[in-house]
Predict the 3D structure of the following.
Amino acid sequence: MSMTQLKSHDFQQVYEELNISLDELGCVMLDLEPLENMGSVALALYHSPNKERFWINGWVCDKNPHITLLYGLVETGVKWENHIETVLKDWQIETVKIDHIDYFDSPYPDEPYYCLVAHIEVTEKLLEGHQRLEFLPHINTFAGYKPHMTIAYIDKNQGETYRDKMIANFNELWSGKSMEVKKTLNLGGNKS
């Protein structure tokens, strides 16, 4: 029996009453060196018409491939840079490995897309970095840590068969591939 994936968007009213915008929380990301063959492919891409959701922008893995180490800081990563450096002192990771390709459904009822993602193998080192950051005030936006690199946002209206074909193609291309992690943490954005 599978439990439904809980997410903060399921409790939107709570955050509205607390005057917290879930789309404006801070994050710490690990930028990755692009894989070979990450160029654009013919996909039915989805681009958000909502300018506040600028990250929902079609094929994204060639722009700034990254994984989120922690999303949900109650302040921007830039504001808390010294605190982030303190909790991550003597922690570093050089590579991550793609476990498999899958998708997330859009958390927004007005945005009909699938988010294709490369799930990253959760190693002790990666989990340690995430857990260190959890000592900072934050809101968990999803239950559990699922490191992933966003590949693309595709139009949900193309259907599940199309989505599954794209996932199978990317699994064949990238499952098991290692990606180099850039040395500098990405604190500049507040979107994952």
User: Anything to note?
Assistant: The chain has one domain: 9-34+43-186. Strands lie at 26-32, 66-73, 95-105, 113-120, 148-155, 178-186.
